[in-house]
Specification:
The protein contains 10 helices and no strands. It is mostly helical and 187 residues long. The protein is globular and about 50 Å long.
Amino acid sequence: MPDPAPLPGHQRAEGAAPSGPPGFEEFFRHYAPMVHRYLIWQEAEPSILDDAVQMTMFSAYRYWGRVSQMDPPTGWLFKVAGQRLQDARHANRRNGVLIGTEALHSKTAHPDPITACDQRLDILAAIRKLPRRQQEAVALREQFGLPYKEIAEVMGASPATVRAHVHQARKTLEAMLGDEIQEGADA
């Protein structure tokens, strides 16, 4: 099996031929940042965030024949990313590695279109107060634009359950944030 595409920030040796199956390098460039953002929404600890992204993209590489046929592969990637995140968390627990939530907040406090605006930070803080399943459902729907059917596959729930989670999350956020959430949706 050929080597996967180079990691972000790393360059191939000059004149080296592209490695990996056709289309994978472009796929990696497009989807790796999206998987990264998804795992931040899942409160991935900074120490395992990049590893979980890489393991997810390696799984996509490994099953490229199937993944390349998916339209779109986002739901599959997010489901695998969640599994890889859990694998990394379990490995850390087995090895006695504990990470506090302060590390997460320092990781998400970088210049990024999502976190650059104070209003969006307030929305993110409010979302973090929601029950875990509502957080995941509303993030996949609002942040990543997935259809309910794909969200249901990622979460292992029915589309009706996902709709209920999203509805309840929106209702709770509206009560917590008032008009701020409506203004944010118009931006």
